[in-house]
From TrEMBL:
<keyword id="KW-0067">ATP-binding</keyword>
<dbReference type="InterPro" id="IPR003593">
    <property type="entry name" value="AAA+_ATPase"/>
</dbReference>
<dbReference type="InterPro" id="IPR017871">
    <property type="entry name" value="ABC_transporter-like_CS"/>
</dbReference>
<dbReference type="InterPro" id="IPR003439">
    <property type="entry name" value="ABC_transporter-like_ATP-bd"/>
</dbReference>
<dbReference type="Pfam" id="PF00005">
    <property type="entry name" value="ABC_tran"/>
</dbReference>
<dbReference type="InterPro" id="IPR015854">
    <property type="entry name" value="ABC_transpr_LolD-like"/>
</dbReference>
<dbReference type="InterPro" id="IPR027417">
    <property type="entry name" value="P-loop_NTPase"/>
</dbReference>
<dbReference type="GO" id="GO:0005524">
    <property type="term" value="F:ATP binding"/>
</dbReference>
<feature type="domain" description="ABC transporter">
    <location>
        <begin position="10"/>
        <end position="247"/>
    </location>
</feature>
<keyword id="KW-0547">Nucleotide-binding</keyword>
<dbReference type="InterPro" id="IPR017911">
    <property type="entry name" value="MacB-like_ATP-bd"/>
</dbReference>
<keyword id="KW-0813">Transport</keyword>
<protein>
    <submittedName>
        <fullName>ABC transporter ATP-binding protein</fullName>
    </submittedName>
</protein>
Amino acid sequence: MMKTTALVASRAIDLFKTYGEGATSVAALRGVSVEVLAGTFTAIMGPSGSGKSTLMHLLAGLDTPTSGDVLLGGCELSALSDADLTVVRREQVGFVFQAFNLLPTLTAEQNIRLPLDLAGQDVDEAWQQTVVQALGVADRLGHRPGELSGGQQQRVALARALVTRPAVIFADEPTGALDSVTGAEVLALFRRSVDEWGQTVVMVTHDAHAAAVADRVVLLADGQVAGEVLDPDPDSVTAAIRDLATV
Ligand SMILES: Nc1ncnc2c1ncn2[C@@H]1O[C@H](COP(=O)(O)OP(=O)(O)OP(=O)(O)O)[C@@H](O)[C@H]1O
């Protein structure tokens, strides 16, 4: 769906990332430029080793590029001190991981509030209430992660990401540990957070059905952008991935 306001939430500017030096060095990204508009859902796909995780880590300010720059929430990350980068990461970025990554000793509610507690920020109670209701975890707030199903844990993880209203939520294979029905439910919640709340989401996935929930699929191959699919459906995504393999 086209948006009338085209604010950029995240931008990769000619990113290169090389791991190691000399003969054993690996060029994980080789000149990647990508623009993610605010309030859109972008999937990143590509073969194993194509640079998806590297790109996501750079976009989120978790790692620094060898050259190039990243724009996040209006800041050029290369211009920031380490201290400022930590603040930008904390305030502008939410994460959802394949393995949920909730703290086992905390309740669901304590997990959801943890980013704000760590930042010493007040919780917007009305917003938290809206999020936990919409995500269907309002009656699970007192439970610890071990007492929740995988789908419930991922809903809590999404609530934790949403509660800070970050510029971008980065999701790394968020349905990889879920069965297909539960995974589809979680993806629908990501979709809803974009459509209802204007949240920006960038998701790495290997699953064409998961990618089809996004507005756009960016295809990586061998450390470079190799194409994109707009308004994807599982068939168009599968065809695009197949074409990549034959290039
Ligand atoms: N910390 C690191 N040190 C050295 N090489 C690395 C490191 N991280 C990634 N690489 C290499 O960089 C390349 C890109 O890796 P990356 O994890 O970004 O790919 P990916 O597309 O996410 O792969 P997958 O789908 O298997 O997770 C690979 O060749 C990988 O081996």
